[in-house]
Amino acid sequence: MKWFLFLLAALLLSSPPTNQEDGRVVFEKPVHDFGDFKIDDGPKTHTFSFTNKWDKPVVIQRVISSCGCAAPEWTRHPVASGAKGEVIVTFNNDIGPYPFDKSLSVYFAGIQRPYILRIRGVVHRKPVSVAQTHPIVMGPLRLKKQNLDLGQIRQGLTKTDSIEIINTSKRPVFLKAKSNHLNLLVRSSSGRIDPGEKSFLIYTVDSRKEQMWGDVLFHANLIINNKENPLHVVTVKASVKMNPEGLSASDKRNAPIPQMNKSAFNFATTKSGSDIQADFILYNKGKTRLVVYKIDTEHQDIQVQMKQEIAPADHTPITVRIPGHVTRECGEVIYTISLTTNAPSRPTIHVLIYGSIE
To answer: Among residues 195, 141, 207, which one has the least CA distance to residue 170?
Structure first.
């Protein structure tokens, strides 16, 4: 039960990330995956390149690493408009065999929020097979995973990540990618992948193309040697939230303030296949209209009834109905409903329904 309560707390207290690109400085690839390597391979170094898209020079004030095992160096002189600069990081690889994911916070003069760069990989004590590290097979290529999650993105911004690809065949592979939506950009870091060579599939969700809210799911077809296969597909998931950066002090003072009468409902032990209903109340304690842009549920058949626009000093009842065919699993369960709002103080509201099914 302790893990269950911990999960509840984590969902209720989760906050949006700060690593967002704002267009003034653009990193070619803000995440680098060193892949799988041995502890006796020694330190690993990567260079993050950026372009100054601003109309004046930029200067990196400082770079803060999340771990002493990742040592940064960076371009010290001002980078002119249109010019490139670098952040170089060395992972010492001296702690032990384990998966790692470290971040670098890059602070530029005149830009309030830091840019977040990440390095990751898996250190092994002894060699492991490609089949173990890259279990997804798409023709001559192998990937670590097929379902990719970008996490949260602020509306009007972009977020980029990548996944390693290996050519396990004896011939060169020519790779392209075709996205199913204009908000998803996917490309190969190298169009040609030689036998045994590693490459990266780089994917970006750009919320500026078409306005979307809440949980979004895209997919891209990998076109291998100019041939499409319906099974050669990767999915990209993200959650688009409100961006409060452009709000004035007055906007923030007069913003809507959502407040729930409760954020979780613990239902009594219920028989498998039974319907479950939970009722909540959402209040608007602010001075302007509260808008719920999107209601996301983890199962498409969970029904949520509520007003999605609430005037100041008003409220709306929320009724959640979980039909019996959703509650067939037994044991401790938790159902999450996420409301994406226009409130700077609480752009996401999680409503939890949990209990035991027997």
So the answer is: 195
In a domain, 268, yes or no: yes
* The total number of structural domains that make up the chain: 3
Handedness of CA 138, 147, 18, 2 (dihedral sign): negative
What residues of the chain score a pLDDT lower than 50? 1-3, 5-6, 8, 10, 12-20
Q: By CB neighbour count within 10 A (0-12 exposed, 13-18 middle, 19+ buried), where does 131 fall? A: exposed
Q: How far apart are CA 177 and CA 137, in angstroms?
A: 16
Counts for the chain of helices (H) and strands (E), in that order: 3, 27
Residues pairing with 158 in the sheet: 21, 206
pLDDT in tens, 25-76: 999 889 999 989 999 899 999 999 999 999 999 999 999 999 999 999 999 9
Q: Which residues lie below 8 Å from residue 227, measured CB to CB, with a gap of 6+?
A: none
Do 241 and 280 fall within a single domain? no
